[in-house]
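Researcher: Going back to the complex we discussed earlier. I've cleaned up the inputs and rechecked each line, so this should be the final set. Can you rerun the prediction on the complete assembly and write out the structure?
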Amino acid sequence: MFCYQCEQTTRASTGNGCHEVKGVCGKDETTADLQDLMIYGLQGIAQYAKRLRQFGENPSEADDFMLYALFTTLTNVNFNASRFVQLIKETAVWRDRLKAQYEALAEQQGVAAEALTGPGQWRPASTLAGLMIQAQEAAAINLELQQVGEDIIGLRAMLLYGIKGAAAYAYHALMLGYRDDDIGAGFEEALDFLATHPGDADQLLDWSMRIGQLNYKVMAMLDAANTGSFGAQQINTVNLAQVKGKAILVSGHDLHDLAQLLEQTQGLGINIYTHGEMLPAHAYPKLKAYPHLVGNYGTAWQNQHQDFTQFPGPILMTSNCLVEPSPAYRQRIFTAGPVGWPGVRHIVGGDFAPVIEAALALPGFSEDAPEQLITVGFGRDTVMGVADKVIDAVKAGAIQHFFLIGGCDGAAPGRNYFTEVAEQAPDETVILTLGCGKYRFNSHDFGDIGGIPRLLDMGQCNDAYSAIQVASALAKAFDCGVNDLPLSLMISWFEQKAVAVLLTLLSLGIRGIRLGPTLPAFLTPALLAKLGEAFDLKATGTAAQDIQDAMKKAA
Amino acid sequence: MSEHQITLTTRDGHEVTFSCGDSFDVVSAGEQAAILLPSLCRDGGCGACVGHCAEGEYTLGEHNAGVLSEAAVSGRDVLLCRTYPQSDLKITAPYDYAHIHFGHCEARNAVITGLKTIADRTVRIRLSWQDEEGGKAVEFEPGQCMELEIPDTGIRRAYSLANTGNWRGELEFLIRLQPEGRFSGYLSRGAEVGQVLKVYGPSGAFGLQSDSLNPAVFIAGGTGLAPFLSMLRRLAEWGEDRSIHLLFGVNRESELFYIDELDRLKQQLPGLSVTLCVWKPEPDWSGFSGTPAEALQHYLQDHPGDYDIYLCGPPLLVTAATQVALARGIAEQRIFSEKFG
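Model: Rerun complete. Updated structure for the full complex:
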């Protein structure tokens, strides 16, 4: 096992990365190796899918499978080794299907079919022991460390993790019926490139930027999927307190799962609560229209043991971040989509009947608690709707700076930095936030500037797209570049969706991002120097100093 | 009374600490601290709470030598329910952190809804939660047990659940009637449908290793079938087929039960195969003649490979089958057992 894809990975003087029998996230060696091998197999699908396109074919169903499979390998998504044995078999079936199609078309058109090697010709072993050997001999991310060095391994990793994050967003869009052939082709090309054992640093960095651009398109597609399905975000207050009655808690990002559950629980007397990254659901008109979507319970993912233990109903986990369920709620937590934990019941095909049955049997909340309200719904349409007021406030000096403080949350003590930046930001500043990092400060009363709330919750982590749109609009209004705006980005990262967003921001030329609480372990000192030089990317410092530095760029 | 610190390290490397007076056993001290360690009989008889004391001084109370041999005692293996600290202790436990329940063990009332003799000296008892206040959920891991209290006595006995976790409030236990058993006596003489029992739990660490990809062999002696029924029923309910061979053994054919249920499970789980073993069969018996330990010997000989071995039954059977598995090269860490006396 070797994995350093998330922020909490083991860091040691002897080298970074989880390489013991179990990673910090809880993923065991078998699961980690099987995930690596499946990704190796996906490269084989990509090899043939890309070549099929040369014959005018569109292997979109294979792309859909790739998105799902890639999503299962994100941090804190799927820990079920037996599921990966099955997925490896399915991967080989898909690859063989595309291979046969490609070779038949080549023959029909009288051209020589390329004889692909590596993942293009790999055969999954028939035993677990054989699969583990294949993983170690062909698929580990650090396999060629001795030959190519840690910088190239780090660049390959950054590219792969960006692909994973973008695939997860594309999967969310797919669940709402949105797909794009160009995006599918983009994933195929990137995985096909990784299958070539790339060793040129500049070329790898260029590919990371291409994935950043691809993810920009993916986030735009997901934005279209969310707003197209549920309406543009609107300002809404959300109750953080319990409401008397039977209850289901929905965590993760997948709005489609939430919508289906809301539909299936209509009129049953069950209240639905959001958790973690599902909070922004309350901003979408067609979701908030359900009267039994009563509020948000708990905070960010890393507090789930406490939140889920205390919640008196079933819990549905629709995406990352899942941690090992404790016995206190192990029987009443359910997974859906790419998520999995051995021994935890998985919902297939959007039929939430077992969750509903559990909700009706469990006690629910016996009484109401006093309302505690927060405001959500500052997606791009909302903010653009008051753009004139914002621009006037900037021109008048009432707003002197914007801080984008967002991304994933986590357990590391260093994440207090983001709370401190938010709380210490001067009164003449506006804080844009997104992702679950917001829970560190979103119940704080920041007040307003001339009616414009000082804290604007833009949504889930993928709503970084909204933030980019707003920044671009402001830059246009002020006739300057985004880097010239009085805007500072303090990004908290944890997993691969955040890597994809970071690559998008960098590919758009955004400079001066502060990234924390620690920098990715896959970025070696040489790579950090390169990114520092090209993008002025820096680690977070102290809140006070970073605010002081930022305010030098005040409007 | 002196207080000592107990540091318990679970199989997956987590540490749990609590204090324990020298007149208390480790399991009871954990319970007082709202840390419920897996255990079953609480009387040194079943071996469910075996651990290893790496550091510290302790007194080991009276226990069944069948579950903790003299050699094991010399090697500082302990039964936590019979371990009385004389200093701070560092103990390793053979179960994962997830098997420890944090919180107090609340009793709930359950009504007897069914009592049936299903084989010679074997009774099935079904119960249902009496009150609606705590909801109708029955939450436990297949393989776990609950304690049933004989009315008006305070005497509790732990039994494995034979059904699966459910949202209907239903509990099912299979109980072997023991000649001198207190609960057996209650079942034979006083128990009837409609009576209310106090139920405690769930507890216990015996269960399917859900993260393992090895094929499994289940060895059940008599009502030791109960936890395996729970596991198989849940696999069937969830549609999760696995390669499992069940060796179900009794002394005489008249003690066999749930054969139709096993046939039904085989239809739902194509990976399941079953061998019925009778130690002293009638001449026309067509199944395996002998103990499940002997049947295991044949099975591993005919089907060599890596297996997870699960054992539940009387101590003699568990010991014999463990020796067979070890002799056939099964790693000790892949053998999971629960004994009852």
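Model: Worth noting: Residues 213 and 504 of chain A are 6 Å apart (CA to CA).
Researcher: Good, that matches what I expected from the previous run.
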